[in-house]
Amino acid sequence: MTSAQLMAMVDFLKEVPLFSEVEKISLLELCKESKEELFLKNHRIIQKGEVGDGMYLILKGKVKVHDKEHDYGSLSKGEFFGEYALIDKKPRSVSVTALEETTLLKIEAAHFLRLIDSDKGFVQGILSVLIKRHRELDVAQERLSASKKQMELAHSQLSGLIQYAMDAIIMFDGDFRIVLANDSAKAILENDDVELRNILYFLDEESASLLEKLIGDHSASSKGMNTHLPNTIKVIGSNEGISTNEGTISSYGNEDETYYTLILRSIDDRIQAERKISTLTKQTEYLQEELKELKQDHGIIAQHASMLNLLGLIDQVAPTQATVLIHGETGTGKELVARAIHNNSNRANGPMVRINCGAIPANLIESELFGHEKGAFTGATNSRKGRFLLADKGTIFLDEIGELPLELQPKLLRVIQEGEFDAVGSSKTQKVDVRIVAATHRDLLALSKEGKFREDLFYRLNVFPIEVPPLRDRGNDVCLIADKMIEHFSKSLSIPIKKLNSAQRKQLLEYNWPGNVRELQNLVERAVIVSKGGEIDWSNILPTSHHAEKTNTPIHNGHILTSKEMLQLEKDNILKALKRTKWKVSGSDGAAALLGLPSTTLASKIKAFGLTRPV
């Protein structure tokens, strides 16, 4: 058939009751595989007793249905026969003969069943008609009384298709009273006796309002309804079980009475899987970030009294839920202290999520901490969980807390006090169970007096303060840590290195270590790489800049520098190095190389001291 003939055939089929509820696109597929057959007058079309392979639709002409000489009646244009061959392979129960020249459209069972398996819209349309025919069974029995047994059999078989479908199928009338529900529907409704009950009673308020609106809009229109549900439907079962579903709704009936078919498919498993995947993906991303930042974890190596006292404080506070504020210079190992607190707490099996408040732009830090909804701001193409939610039942480590924007501090205060927050772009409050450990190298109390940090937030964070001493004040710990690091890098780089001798220990003890443990780690790694014959020449590794000379001079003169004087001395020295290199930080001719510091360490110190390049 040509395209025009196919479309004409589709329009014809839409007028046939059996296919009146089927979408045209599905009928087009049916017509493509069906064929026209011509029968002359008195030609036998169906012989009683033979096994049929399809049904026939009368396009033109007239036929009679009979059993030998007994006449059951006649059928003409638009009517069909032999439809039971679509669902079973039983012998024909009657014969059909052409009363005049007749053209038929033969629909083969094999193609019909293929559409049943592959086309959901085709199934829904056929089911709607068959249910209508079920409701009008008395009329059908009056017209074809002799076919009563076959109709009952067809209804039974098609009911089986509905009954054992995996999707929930619920049919209800214009008053929302359920007239039919299959086993899947009864399972989500948690009720085996739902007939004549109001379907709205099984829906939450939002879903019930949606269904009422759809039915109301349809009632005001003369058109039939066959559409996907615009939103999910939340079903609340008789035992308070809740399921979230997507689906379709269609209507059938006449001006006097209308019925609706609601087909639902649960998406709870999919939602749970998507959430699980999203959470695992985000946790993996954060863990990968952590692994990139941490070359290795040496633990806390300590013999000095100040560090032994610190370890005692960790043991005291770890089992509690108290908020901890760790203070110390850059590179002293504040994160190691935070990890030790987490690992020795009852949250050790939960996540520990770290965020550097000074490393994230101010316009993104709120989203990083608390998450955002899709469309909350430009570029927010998907919803995202924040790190507080990822740290639920665990610990969140807020490094460089002094850099947290002032306008965001009340939101953090709310989390500490109430354990709740709102994601960016959301009005829904989320509860979270998180222990907070914060760290800073800045004087937060002084900042609060200057109006740069909320005083109430400082006191909420400073429940249990821990001071991490700088490496220069830890005596022989520098040598213990260096030995451990040398052993580690020696193994990882496959370069045998001898242990520190007394002269080398003296060199390490005399150096000021402005970059603390982080500087020691970087210098040890460099020392192992450039070592010769298992020996390290520390005089070529340790920085010997003007900074070292200047710090040694007053000590020789008997003057002991205060901590404030040391910081000022370091600040002046960094400023001189920056001026000499024209404010170039990294590279072989940069200030970091001149000072013997990693460029990242120098960048942190420039930020901490508030040094800015003059315009």
Strand and helix map with partners:
Blueprint: H1 3-14, H2 24-33, E1 35-39, E2 44-46, E3 54-60, E4 62-67, E5 70-76, E6 80-81, E7 95-98, E8 102-108, H3 109-118, H4 120-135, H5 137-143, H6 148-163, E9 168-173, E10 178-181, H7 183-189, H8 205-219, E11 226-228, E12 233-236, E13 242-253, E14 258-266, H9 268-293, H10 305-317, E15 324-327, H11 334-343, E16 352-356, H12 362-370, H13 387-390, E17 395-399, H14 409-418, E18 420-422, E19 429-431, E20 435-440, H15 444-449, H16 455-461, E21 464-467, H17 477-492, H18 502-510, H19 516-530, H20 538-541, H21 546-556, H22 563-580, H23 591-595, H24 599-609
Parallel strand pairs: 15-20, 15-21, 16-17, 17-20
Antiparallel strand pairs: 1-8, 2-7, 3-6, 3-8, 4-5, 4-7, 9-10, 9-14, 11-13, 12-13, 13-14, 18-19
Helix pairs in contact: 1-2, 14-16, 17-19, 21-22
